[in-house]
User: Fold this.
Amino acid sequence: MTITLSRRRFVRATGAAGLATTIPLSVLADYAGAAPPDADKGILLTIFLRGGNDALNTIGPFDAGIYRDNRLSIAISPSSATSAANGLYFHPSLPYVRQRFRQGDVAVFPAVGEPDDDHSHFSSTSTWMTGRAVGANRSTGWMGRWLDAQDDDVLGASVDGSRAKQIRGVTSKVVAVSRSSGDLLPTGSRYGRGNASMWRHNHGALTDMGNEYGAVLRNAAQFSSKLSPLYANGVTRSDDRFVADLQRAAHVLNLGLGVRVISSTLGGFDTHSAQADRHAEKLAALDSGLREFFATLLPALHGQTTVLVVSEFGRRVRRNSSLGTDHGSAGVCFVIGQRVKGAVKTSYPSLNDLTRRGDMKYQTDFRSIYTTIAEQWLDDDGVRLLGTSHPTVDLFTSGPLGTGVAGFLDVNGAGYYAGALRWASANGIVTGSTPTTFEPSRDMTRAEFATVMWRTAGSPTPGRGSSFVDVGSRAYYADAVAWMVEQAITTGTSPDRFSPDDPLTRAQAATFIWRWRGRPVRSGAPSFGDVPGGQYYTNAVGWMAADGITTGTAPGRFSPHDPVTRAQAITFLWRDAGSPVV
Amino acid sequence: MSLTPADARHLLRRAAYGGLPAEVNALVGLSRADAVAKVMDTTGATTAADIPSVTRSSSERRRLAHWWIEQMTTTPAPIVERLTYFWHSHFACTSERVRDQRLMKNQHWLLRAYGQGGFHYLLTRIATDPAMLIDLDNASNVAGDEQENFGRELMELYTIGRAVYSEDEVVSMARAWTGHNLDDDTDPDTYRFYSDRHDKHDKTLFGITRKWDAMDTIDELVNGVRRDYTAWFLATKLWAEFGDPGWASVELIQRLADVMKANDMRAVDVIREIFLRDEFWAPERRFAMVKPPIPWVVELQRRTGRRLSEGRLDQRCDTMGQRLFLPPSVAGWGHNTAWLSGMSLMGRARVAYDLAGDAQRSGFLAGLGDKTPDTAVDQILTAFGVPDASPESREVLRTWYLDAALVDDLSDTWLEREGFRVGAMLPEVNLS
Assistant:
């Protein structure tokens, strides 16, 4: 009997070892068709600081007399541990931002604004979230309009529980990523029909609002099940609400659902009173959130992910009577990412030359930053998106350039095994531990190796099953092991055992491939000091070295008794196949 | 023109928390005027004196919110709860900033006691309410060291609206309110005017230069030179709350503003006028707005006779985005799309799940398993008070019933539970 190896079964059987560190696999069936963005597609996370973040205390000339004269008791003390550049200092609650800044990954626009600023939270927030001036149509957000123009499989996500206007479009392509799994639809077979009926609700409406309700419900219900891995045991989540939001933002990207824009908000920046502690607390949350976001994000995604941090306005230069600051004009904007050209991008606005209201004057129209991101990161046209034309700013060192290979986000495109993995994926030889991870460094089990080798051979149907007691007839690797026995590639680890879950050693891997290829003998092969003569694998390793299938683990070393990693195993098979370029 | 059952349900979705069959029947056949008089009747309403006492502790917020939702569920005069909620969202103070829950309770007392009266008195009391003084920082607004927060929002959010005042007026308004602070020595906090902290100099507001004080500004905003603006602004907000946040006409708002000015600037008279207008009864107003989460939960509690526990209710309201005494911003809660996030709707799906077992045990959809598909659909729609649902919604239910009853062969018990969950999420049940 032939058992078709579905991805799901393969993964269920093989994935167990690596699960704690990545997203578990409970809902793989739902992933059919879902794929992470190609490595050259930009991803954007926007963090909106609600209430008007005080730019001057976020990054400012803390050692200037005029600064201290204005800020009095809420002035921040300068320190060598917080210095940025050119006499500017970061708030001490931003150590991670400063670290990334020093690595060249943070563009700081110290004075962004807009010509119509009226100091109103609602009007200004709307301006920033829509990218459109007062008087224009402000029903949709700038990220939402971007989403509207994309193919159906490109999605947005909101991680803060709201659907902030910045990501609201006319279509409903925003996945709500809830804070708790308790907000997902209940699962279990009894709920299947009821949940499915919710998916149909886009048809059930009398009115515009009813249609929109139906669309949002359908979208949420459909994604509810796909998001359940985010809440599984073992997935890290912070106690801080915002930090947890950003961890989930990274997890959603890691899942590869097609999400390319994410909206997040952090409230509490309207510091009219008792600013010192409140502002420090909020900036610390921002800093931790950013740190956790990048720590959670799979390495391959870093090259294609940019974070934008904005707020609706800055605050008055002069401290007020409540030890706080009132609404001001110029705000601060950070753009963070591997491809960002990090620097303080404009001169710092003068504290001697203020607006009539006593605010710093802005130097960069925020829409120039949106335009640059739209055109250089998200393949769009700034005028189409915003309705008005703005010059771009010098922001990126290159376009998005992730390092994922064949949809696997934990794989480095520059790694020695990248070509092998492209070939193996294209030929259906590997399907990964999860849809987005390959776990290249994990030890390969004997069952996994049997399976990939058997698939490389074209998944031939064996005449009969193997007689190993530890290879069940329904195991995903049953046909593969039976075929190996038939071909005299394996005799098991004992007469009645194959030990499918044991790691395979490099010597065993070499031997399997060698036997499969008819036990060719080569003379004059490069020798490895740790491969003595007369071992069961001596001829196998000699053949592999002579034919360029292995170059060893170091000069003169093959490390025969080390477990073979998944990356090494795939590479052996690829080189054996002639290193085809895919 | 007398009310049809569909008219009665429309009115009760807006003026109350959905109509139970007896409530619908009581309105059918009445003239609009008589029906509106009935839903505006405040007999038996929960009064300010009924509010339970609370302590300072932040955990009291949840208890207060739970008490209020219980009033909404059981009151014979739901219009009072609707109006009180309107004012809570209008003067949106948050317990997170006020901290002392006795002050939140006292503010609720004010809204309940004076919300039905003239706006001038209500605003005077709210402006000097300790919770407001803390939330918008006027507690620390003193001469020579002004604090603009309250002065700005007094105009932008509470009276005349944005873009009809200048930034200079914000400064003048802040100066007029200097010295209107909290007493330094009382517990709980109380309002106190400190003459020595008040800016007694000339200020220019609304083109008038004089020695403005706080109460002068309220006089001019509500009854003086800015009366038209304030009436217009409040009429617009009331129409959005009770009529349609997605549509209005200049003639309509002008009429509502005129009614407000002719009736001591009382909101209740505007609401009554809204319910009497042809625009309110037009087909386009039916199911025109998204029912906010709390009215939706209250209606489910009323229809099933069952309750969510205090803790569960608070948790779900958090997910759905509507926790009383914790408005999302100083502008209060929004309308329509503000409630249409995926997370908010998944919160509703969880509430439906929470209540499904209880609803089934209470016989909410008893006998559903014995029906034909079409009569099953009728039973569900009638139970949720939306027999006039769209053909598309009927088809969703019909398909579900055929699959669940015939293909999945769910037990009667599970069929009734599932019927509740599916019905509670129908578009019509979530619209108003």
